[in-house]
Specification:
By secondary structure, the chain is mainly alpha-helical. It has 14 helices and no strands. The protein is globular and about 55 Å long. It has 2 domains: 1-92, no CATH class; 110-220, Leucine-rich Repeat Variant (Alpha Horseshoe). The longest helix is centred in the middle third of the chain and has 17 residues, at 124-140. α3 packs across α5 (64-73), α8 (111-119) packs antiparallel against α9 and α9 (124-140) packs parallel to α12 (165-179).
Length: 220
């Protein structure tokens, strides 16, 4: 199956109604948006199978749904740091950010390193990537030690003051997912959340209060 064949198929599936629905959920990418459900794209990706070269071609089309497919069919072991840097710079919506993080970047050997790199960047979706990766690793990487997650705490606290919607939601997500990983991290993230709650920032207070409410109710 070629990239051209896939794009031809996608153009037949997309609808204006889906595009309108996606816009209501804050999905308004600068790239071309066809209006196709993630459910269909996941099913389609399984039919296509893993293919690194095809993933690179799909990304270059600059079509939103094709880029989601690229993340779903790429081979994480063949992904380079340069490729990820390039893709992340072009993130233009929360769903492409989260899909690439949870289906591709978090499975690469350099995911941890990229968290520290991307958190320092000012671009909204690049910074979101750092915290989305924290949340994804907390869920997917069963071998990561608590000490590795604790290294993320200074970043969570520092950037809790970022008022941008897609950043603060990702910081909150990271804090909650790390805190739900096990009893020890739950205790430590609650302490961190209490510290963040004292910061003179509307974003920080929201992040902390929301996380505390969920983490205090977590049962192990």
């Amino acid at each position: 199956m070629t990239a051209d064949e896939i794009i031809k198929r996608l153009r037949k599936i997309g609808t204006a109604r889906n595009r309108e629905g996606m816009a209501r959920f804050g999905i308004r990418p600068k790239t071309e948006l066809l209006g196709i459900s993630v459910t269909f794209l996941r099913q389609y990706a399984r039919k296509i199978g893993r293919n690194h070269e095809l993933a690179l071609e799909l990304w270059q089309t600059k079509i939103h749904e094709a880029r989601i497919l690229a993340a779903l069919v790429d081979e994480s072991e063949r992904v380079t740091a340069g490729q990820i840097n390039s893709w992340v710079r072009e993130f233009d919506s929360w769903d492409i950010c989260d899909t690439v993080c949870s289906n591709l970047i978090d499975k690469t050997k350099f995911a941890n390193k990229k968290i520290f790199e991307f958190s320092k960047r000012k671009e909204e979706f690049v910074r979101r990537t750092a915290f989305t990766l924290m949340a994804c690793l907390a869920v997917h990487d069963k071998k990561m030690k608590d000490s590795e997650f604790i290294k993320f705490f200074p970043l969570i606290k520092k950037y809790s003051t970022d008022e941008r919607n897609f950043v603060r939601k990702a910081v909150n997500w990271a804090l909650r997912q790390i805190g739900k990983r096990n009893k020890n991290l739950n205790r430590l993230t609650l302490t961190l959340a209490e510290e963040i709650k004292k910061i003179d920032s509307r974003s920080a207070r929201w992040i902390a209060s929301d996380a505390i409410r969920e983490l205090k109710n977590k049962k192990f």
